[in-house]
Design a protein that fits this description.
heterotrimer, A mainly alpha (316), B mainly alpha (362), C alpha+beta (567), A: mainly alpha, B: mainly alpha, 12 helices, 6 strands
Amino acid sequence: MGAFIFRRTIGAFIVLFAVSLITFAIFIVIPGGDPAVRMAGKNATDENIANIRETWGFDEPFYVQYATMVEQIFNGDLVSYNTQQNVVEEIKRGLPATISLAIGAAIIWLFFGVLVGVISAITAGRWSDRAITVLALVGISMPVFWLGILARYYLGPENAGIFPDGRYVPLTVNPAQWLYHLILPWFVLAVLFIGFYGRVLRSNFLDSMNEDYVRTAKAKGLTPWQIRIRHVLRNIMIPILTLFALDFAAVLGGGAILTETVFDLQGVGQYAARSVRSLDLPPIMAVTLLGAFFIVLFNAIIDFFYAYLDPRIRPS
Amino acid sequence: MTQQATDFTLDTATELAERDHGPIEGRSPWYLAWRRLRRNLVALGALMVFFLIVFVCVMAPWYAENIAETGPNRTHLTDKVEVDGKMVDVISAGGTEQDPETGELRIKTVQVLGPQLWHAGGKYVLGADPSGRDIAVRVLYGGRNSLLIGIGSAIICTILATVFALLAGYYGGWGDWLITRVFDLIAALPVILLGIALGTALSINGFHHGPIDVESGSLWIPTLIISVILVAYVGRPLRGQILGLREKEFIEASISQGASARRVMLSELLPNIASSILVFFTLIIANNILVEAALSFLGAGVQPPNPSWGTLISEGQLRIRTAPWLTIVPGTAIVLTVVSLNIFGDGLRDALDPRAKVRIEH
Amino acid sequence: MRPQGGAVNQMGVGMTERWRRLVGLFALIAALTFAVAACGGGDDEAGGTTTEASGGAAEKTFPEFKIAYEPIDYMDPGLSYSVQGWGIMWNVYLGLLTYKHVDGPEGAELIPGLAEDLPEISDDGLTYNFTLREGLKYSDGSPVKASDFTATVKRLFLIDSPGVGFFTGIVGAEQFAKTKKGEISGLVTDDDARTIEIKLAKPQGDFLHILAMVFAGFVPANTPAKDQSTTPPPGTGPYMVDEFVPNRRAVVVRNPNYAEIDGVPKGNPDKMTFTILEEDSASLQSVIDGTNDYSSHPIPVDRLGEVQNQYADQLKLYTPANTYYYFMNNRLAPFNKLEVRQAVNYAIDRAAIVRLYGGLATATENFLPPTYPQYKKILMYPHDMEKAKQLVQQSGTAGQAVTVWSSTRETHQKAAEYLTDILNQLGYKAKLRAIDPAIYWATIGNQKTKAQTGLANWFQDYPHPLNWFDTLLNGNRITEEHNNNYSNADVPAMNDKIEELKKNAELTDEINTEWEGVDRMALENAVVAPFVNRQFTDFFTAEMDLDNCYVNHVLYQFDYIQSCKKG
């Protein structure tokens, strides 16, 4: 077991290293303008630019720059090319919004996804199943940002007035407002996943109903409900939860960029999008590493659980 | 016990023989799948809708020239248009004027022409955008670009994924290890971020390395980017299937008979995953259209002034109060296209893999 | 019932008696009313009776001014180069000279700030002598020394400030820029005598304005040589920065150690809270809701109508000195031909472009904005598409590929899309390339980009024509990498004129006329194609008093410290 954890940790580091290298390479190989010139501003002198190059080490070979940047990330010293603001501080400021969004949306989509999927499976073929299938299909076909724009405008203060106009209120400042401002983003983000999870759950559920163990259970005299809940549902929850963990990691790692941008939540995703568009390498590196870290972490957790639960997979 | 409306049978040889009152003949799985698909009216209907959308978008240049009489990027800031006999400004003059009483500067707001439907003889059917461009023309051209990118990237992505999956699955060893690591890596990078990063970086100067010479603003850039970032999404499941097939006896038999690697891959493995590829292909088109819309919305996909459904939503967002149709129309177009593809993809999958359709009866 | 005069009614009270009682009752009521009015309406009284200038301001004080603000680049006077940063810091960091806090062209007048008086300038225009006021203190109580000026300027070089270019004219500055060690020989100060002497290498007509910039705002000598935005250094202005959280908020409060300087008011709000919002519509909405008192963002174009109709009294329009223009690279085909550049000037319909800005713009053919005394309206290129096409044919460049550059900012991109369309109509193969604003200027300022044409704009750094013609159109100041002369305009006659006029510190009528000539030269050579001067909006809640307390400064725009609420 210990060896397994050790190997996975090494693997994780390698992946993170590779991710950071690729990100760095994209922005070195594909030129996006000299950061020294950018920093020097409108009225720069040649001297100015040369000085900046030296101070910030832009004239160093790229592997030195890479190493410096990674070091700065871990020291918390990293600053943006555009504004010289501390990147790590800015990420810390945005994390509460991103995490609140991700966790809330995840709970909602898991709950409703399973609920909708089970109802759909149990009533397979009837109108409720069809209605849900249609809705689910529409849900996964909608561009998240489009839904968000329309929801924000039509349900916001200028029209229906049910929800506030985007923006994030920290939990520590006002819990009621925190909730109020997040409900719409939660549901918008969850819509896509509810549809998807509903369909996956439905198809897995129906597939399992044909398995031998279900026939055995029926033969043993268990009621349909007992079969459904005690056996089938529990069996299919494992792959569902796997999927859930991976999706949650992806959302935490930057998948909520569009929702954050549309509702102006000022989270890490929005910061990342802004930085990428302005080719500001330090925040891009930091956010990409953060995102990749979450994805790798959750992958490792899942693998660990599988190994723990299934002795066949456990490496010797 | 009721029969479902998607009147389902396995179409086994026996069933068909009974129905056609003929001898029991063997039928290829493709033929059987086609029969099942034919009965799925909903799926076929969805396919028709998709083809209709594609057709309409392909006709964009014809529409632009003959009905709207303008181009997708032509501005008409000071032009007038005849609406029901009267000449109307496309964009009214606006400006500032002095209030006669207080002498204060007041704003005379600029009015942008709204949807005319057919009152202007085919021009500005869906109204104008703030630069005086014809929205209907832009929606059609935008659809053309979005579909080109969606379908093109789906083709490239599927081909690449199939090739990688075959190579990885067949050869195994360190080739497989390498390809799997590459897939893992791409999957570990937050996809949208990677897409925006590449899209932004490449849109500045294009890509001019080695033999590849792509101008910035070319549709190839978003197409290739989307293909690359989603190749793992298709490649991994395909590789899994191939790994499963690899162990089967008929493959071993083929190899021991001296079949070359190419023959095994193309004649034995490929046909067995063909139905998966087909289903993936359909669903990936839908997915890629959504990804392209997202990238274009964020400015990292189709470059201005060229329209795509994503850029149109982004442009419309600023006018949502006075011209909500600018946002609603392109978004609805996306939903219609993607839904129809998803419905058809579902139907296709059901037709190709009938076991998934068997239900419990109660 | 009619009263019978003198008759006694049933109640036994005489009529006159009753009348007297009534009168008495009325008198009592009247007296009470007057008494209440005289004593009770404290606010009204206090607001209306004072007449002296600063005394009146003191009466208009109010506890908090809440502002919805745009993102600020730096809260460090040595680094900030934006309207947003300067809008706050011109009241926090005073320099030797400053501007009068008034409306209109008078605001361009330089007045002594920390200096006792305007300087003595030597006849050759190379030496400036100042004496610092006595007893000045920073907001933390420490004394202001003459040598702090040297420290402030040196700090600009040490932190590689974007404002460094303004100060390289000082003797010894370039040397200091290279080594970052030692002294700047051109700056000689005496702390006891409170004197500051500045020697320039060449006469600079705009140097006094440069001394009034926020870059030259005094900071203590021990201020660290790196970005201090999150711990802003103490200053000498009427206010001080209490807190700055990047991208979130800034809190500015009164400076207890502010020595009142004539022309720089003490200010009305006790505290100013700037909430930084990215979205224009959210900012507007927060003022409509009352969460904030003022929005510095431009009003989103699709809400202009709504605001004009429902909140006309809370809206103010103003035109800061700005020009939006298309640059045309004089060194690259097809724009290296005069006919082509003239064709562009004829082809663009400036009245049409005004509509792109929702009408909040004025068409212009001048490079200099109309707020300048040196402005004389140019009407050389009336919109004429036919003539433009002819010129293009003559030049033989039709069919060439042209890339039009722009930033992705909506107000830039729309104009660039328009130009792309026009160039296509003229027979070129034009394409647009729009990139993020953060990298746009550096990209088009790099000769390697080979940018043929595109969008540019300029908002004045200080009110002097040199800031326009010298910075942006002087052929001698073309550089490889951080070029501001995007057109690579290099007309010898114009260059010489600019260099000549650079030497004059004073703007006499003759000099002004000469500047008008430079403006004309720029357009005769069609080095650029200016198209509009944009107008902007200030939007307030109904509580803000816009009749008495709205001052829009020619350089720094709305003066927050002079705002007040309705009495």
